[in-house]
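User: Design a sequence. Structure:
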């Protein structure tokens, strides 16, 4: 029996989320965990590679390093790319897309580099078909290969995830300006919220923050309802994958230990949120309701108010948003005085309208906008 494959793996994250992803990997038992700009390196057995894709809440993609070498000329690239064990990652008759970046290298023409790498793949997997990279939002089930040339050093990575990991499979209906699932989970984790405390989002939109909170509270692996690229690899081990799935399912709790609530004044958004929660398997764990911020349920027990309010990136919204933030702060003080609060914020001036002492705990991006997670107590000691 051949030994189980081992990988030098890299979990790609949004900027600023590297430490959160590193902590998640350590909790999974990963070794050699090291956070760097844009992600986290770690050593992975086949089982751990599968488990990382299934369980990581804050990563965007997990890739396996297939080759790293110096390439200052095309003949070097051709020869060394030809030694990469492509047949371990590319199944016969599977379409392959290449994503190439070249920076500060003698080989600077990305199309020419892609052509040479494609030839190297064809030399070992003759029936593989090269297709154009359709981008991260494409639903085409092909094998993505990422080639990076930096200072004449070529790194070849094989995507093991397929669709980006924020695509859990439940969010088919969205409201305005939705927050990505990975950022919603990162907000909850970075804030310090724990499932032993109730959770409320008074501007929940299509429900991403409450749904991610319920998934965390019930210990439901975020990838249980989707497929992954590694399932199409030639060396895919179905028994190992089944064991990873069984472990994740056995760890799931029957219900959230504390209340999870989401509300929004938009009835259509709440309808979408309820449908998304149903697909995520947490419909019975979240109380969704249609109501304005001013009618937020009072919270007499210690709880967390976590939300992603509008940022005001369009002209003419400043006055309306200042009033919205002031109202949110007033409601928090009057109805949730024992709460802690976490906010996804893009504007410190709007934060100040809350009238609360909040401190930044994480800086990242959301939809191309630089944001920070701020947190604090509604009624500070």
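Assistant: Done.
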């Amino acid at each position: 029996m051949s030994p189980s494959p081992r990988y030098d793996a890299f979990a790609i994250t949004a900027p600023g989320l590297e430490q959160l992803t590193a902590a998640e990997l350590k909790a999974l038992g990963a070794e050699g965990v090291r956070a760097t700009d844009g992600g986290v390196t770690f050593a992975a057995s086949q089982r751990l590679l599968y488990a990382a894709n299934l369980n990581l809440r804050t990563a965007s993609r997990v890739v396996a390093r297939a080759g790293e070498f110096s390439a200052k000329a095309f003949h070097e690239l051709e020869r060394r790319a030809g030694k990469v064990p492509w047949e371990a990652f590319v199944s016969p008759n599977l379409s392959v897309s290449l994503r190439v970046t070249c920076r500060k290298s003698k080989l600077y023409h990305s199309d020419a580099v892609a052509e040479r790498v494609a030839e190297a793949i064809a030399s070992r997997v003759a029936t593989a078909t090269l297709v154009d990279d359709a981008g991260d939002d494409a639903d085409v089930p092909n094998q993505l290969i990422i080639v990076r040339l930096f200072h004449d050093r070529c790194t070849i990575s094989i995507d093991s995830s397929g669709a980006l990991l924020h695509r859990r499979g439940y969010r088919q209906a969205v409201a305005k300006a939705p927050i990505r699932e990975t950022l919603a989970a990162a907000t909850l984790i970075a804030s310090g919220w724990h499932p032993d405390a109730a959770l409320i989002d008074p501007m929940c939109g299509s429900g991403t923050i409450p749904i991610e909170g319920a998934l965390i509270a019930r210990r439901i692996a975020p990838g249980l309802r989707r497929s992954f690229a590694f399932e199409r690899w030639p060396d895919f081990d179905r028994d190992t994958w089944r064991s990873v799935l069984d472990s994740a399912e056995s760890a799931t709790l029957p219900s959230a230990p504390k209340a999870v609530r989401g509300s929004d004044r938009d009835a259509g958004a709440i309808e979408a949120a309820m449908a998304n929660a149903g697909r995520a398997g947490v419909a019975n764990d979240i109380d969704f309701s249609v109501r304005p911020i001013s009618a937020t349920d009072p919270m007499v027990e210690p709880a967390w108010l976590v939300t992603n309010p509008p940022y005001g990136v369009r002209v003419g919204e400043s006055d309306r948003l200042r009033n919205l933030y002031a109202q949110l702060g007033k409601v928090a003080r009057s109805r949730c005085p024992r709460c802690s609060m976490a906010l996804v914020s893009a504007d410190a001036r709007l934060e100040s309208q809350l009238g609360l002492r909040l401190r930044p705990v994480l800086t990242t991006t959301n939809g191309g906008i630089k944001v920070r997670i701020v947190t604090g107590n509604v009624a500070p000691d």
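The chain is about 30% helix and 25% strand. The two ends are 62 Å apart (CA to CA).
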